[in-house]
Design a protein that fits this description.
Strand content of chain A: 15-25%
Radius of gyration of chain A: 21 Å
Structural class of chain A: alpha+beta
Distance between the termini of chain B: 29 Å
Number of helices of chain B: 8
Low-confidence stretches of chain B: none
Largest sheet of chain B: 4 strands, mixed
Number of domains of chain B: 1
Oligomer: heterodimer
CATH superfamily of chain B: Ribosomal protein L30/S12
Strand order of the largest sheet of chain B: 2-5-3-4
Mean pLDDT of chain B: 85
Order of helices and strands of chain B: HEHEHEHHEHEHHE
Helix content of chain B: 25-40%
Mean pLDDT of chain A: 85
Strand order of the largest sheet of chain A: 5-6-7
CATH architecture of chain B: 2-Layer Sandwich
Distance between the termini of chain A: 43 Å
Order of helices and strands of chain A: EEEHHEHEEEHE
Radius of gyration of chain B: 23 Å
């Protein structure tokens, strides 16, 4: 990417965006992220190892509410494993079914849809056939920071 | 002399910002797929034992092939989702998870979990980049990057043992118990916002 020198030694790219180095560590709002992470793991445990999945659903509901209230962003990888209707953790062969459906007459690959159907009947449809090499904004622009060393907090 | 547009761009209108985002402790884990030692040897074994023979069977229906192969995503997933099978089967599941150009990542995201929870004996084998095209070139109409091979009497036992030696078993410790708590992993999302 072509970089131009700004007024005070600033780095500006070709689109007129001021480039700033990433911070070395993420420090803000850490407790809330830890709480969300804990709730997520607890909900999966409750779904798999207890007969009554109500607790798991409740943990997921809390997770969603907290992330919205305290403005903590959650990765799409997490959000895709939670049902938006009943807040169930979507674990294949246990709480959801995964299939590829194609409604077109010619069964063209372009019309392939990945359907994740929750036990409650809610369906998540991903249009995978339209662009097979599609990557989410998150996947394209994420910087991995490595595992945070916050084990002693729990 | 530079244009007005170029001069305009020298003045920054937006700035780069980094937003923290909570990464999944399980789904995004790099250790989700079982590690394969000597990947090139595994590919060569697959090629010499199965794929090279498939080239000569292009005119024959797949159901009449000497070995039982499955490439349909729905059939593979339903087989892996069986809860109480009459007889547990042994199989190899070859996955082209590195060929993201042809296989969407969301399609294969839940396959390790399925393979782990499945009552059958499934050996998950991840293949290197370029394997998708290699399999397609051998006459198999691979569509979703999954190739399931049933291990039966018609498969060479040396091939089976050679693959099993090189592939580590599927482990998903988070599905077993909660002893191992995964610490919070925060990533940064690069985006821009206007300068006021």
């Amino acid at each position: 990417m072509a970089k131009k020198q700004g007024k005070k030694g600033q780095r500006i790219d070709e689109n007129g965006t001021l480039l700033i180095d990433p911070p070395k560590q993420v420090g803000t709002n850490k407790e809330n992220y830890q709480r969300i992470n804990y709730l997520y793991q607890l909900s999966i445990f409750s779904t798999l190892h207890t007969k009554n999945i109500t607790m798991g659903r409740m943990y997921n509901k809390n997770l969603d509410l907290i992330s919205k209230k305290v403005k903590c962003n959650v990765s799409p990888d997490i959000k895709r494993t939670i049902c938006k209707k009943c807040n169930r953790s979507l674990i294949p062969s246990r709480t959801c079914r995964i299939t590829i459906k194609n409604k077109s007459r010619g069964q063209t690959r372009k019309n392939d849809d990945l359907v994740v159907e929750c036990d409650c009947g809610m369906k998540k449809v991903f249009r995978i056939g339209l662009k097979r090499d599609y990557k989410l904004f998150h996947e394209r622009n994420v910087i991995r920071m490595g595992e945070a060393k916050d084990k002693k907090n729990f | 002399m530079s244009s007005l547009k170029a001069l305009d761009k020298k003045v920054a209108t937006r700035k780069q910002v980094y937003k923290p985002i909570l990464s999944s402790p399980y789904v995004n884990d790099l250790g989700q797929w079982p590690h394969v030692n000597e990947q090139s040897v595994v590919v060569e074994l697959l090629k010499s034992t199965i794929l090279n023979k498939c080239v000569h069977l292009t005119n024959v229906e797949m159901s009449q092939w000497p070995w039982s192969l499955e490439i349909d995503y729905n059939k593979i997933v339903s087989l892996l989702s069986e809860k109480t099978p009459a007889t547990p089967l042994h199989m190899f599941l070859f996955v082209c998870n590195k060929d993201t150009k042809f296989v969407p990542s969301i399609l294969l995201q839940q396959i390790p979990t399925l393979a782990y929870l499945c009552p059958h004996d499934v050996t998950l084998v991840q293949l290197p980049t370029g394997s998708f095209e290699m399999i397609r070139n051998s006459g198999i109409n691979l569509q979703n990057g999954l190739l399931l091979l049933h291990i039966n009497d018609q498969i060479d036992p040396k091939f089976v043992s050679a693959i099993k030696e090189r592939v580590q078993p599927t482990t998903q410790p988070w599905l077993d118990d909660l002893n191992e708590y995964r610490s919070t992993q925060l990533d940064l999302l690069t985006t821009t916002q206007p300068i006021r």
